[in-house]
Amino acid sequence: MTTKTTNTLLLSIMAVVTISLTTSVAYADHDTSHYWIDEDVEYKCLSGINSISKTSNVSPCSDFSTATNFWDDVSSQTWDLDPSSHGSRVNITGASLADDDWAAVAYTEKNGDDTIESGYIQFNTTFSETFGDVTAGDTTEVDFEYVAVHEAGHLLRFTHSTTSGSVMEETVSVGDDFTGLHSHDISELQGKYPS
User: Which domain holds residue 92?
Assistant: First the structure.
């Protein structure tokens, strides 16, 4: 995420695969390139996630699990991201990133083809702002769950959307509360990972 104005943050992605953020086409328009090699993916929260600046209302691993459920619970799709206490293909952690980025996502492709076999999401531990839980009253902070759902969308290989109300829109305002996936988000997920 990048600070856009005092109260607006620009969500950003850092990926191994270059993605154009200036395209007017929302997501990949059901593009099947760069998809997970299988649909059952495990993630593990590493201790570094607890180093992010957060209010007492944010429990990063638990809140990330809640965020992934928004994607997992969509019907007529096959992708599933589940927590794991042992080895996993996706690591969720904290890291020192560029000062204006809230989080970053990266992937490892299998043998140079379009299938992804591992990845990570890093939440910025050195950003001057604080993650909060807007539903719990942290209305002057950026909602962690909102950012987590957005970054999980990048993990699914969605780029930024031009559809108003989509969780994959490029910006989120301080105090915005995530209330659920937009119908466009759901359609894109079902198109990329059909059952």
Answer: 2-192
CATH number at residue 167: 3.40.390.10
Two tokens, residue 19 = 């993605």
**Strand runs (DSSP E) across 133-179, as ranges?**
142-143, 171-173
Residue 187: alpha-carbon gap to chain centroid? 17
* 39-56: pLDDT as tens digits: 778 888 899 999 999 999
- The residue among 94, 167, 165, 102 whose CA lies nearest residue 131 is 102
Q: For residues 85 and 80, give the distance between their C-alpha atoms in angstroms, rounded to a whole number.
A: 16
Per-residue pLDDT of 104-150, as tens digits, reads: 888 787 766 677 788 889 999 988 788 999 999 999 998 999 999 99
Provide the number of structural domains found in the chain: 1
The answer to whether residues 189 and 79 touch, using CB atoms and an 8 Å cutoff, is yes
- Both tokens assigned to 26: 């929302």
* Number of Cβ atoms within 10 Å of the Cβ of 84: 13
pTM for the structure as a whole: 0.80
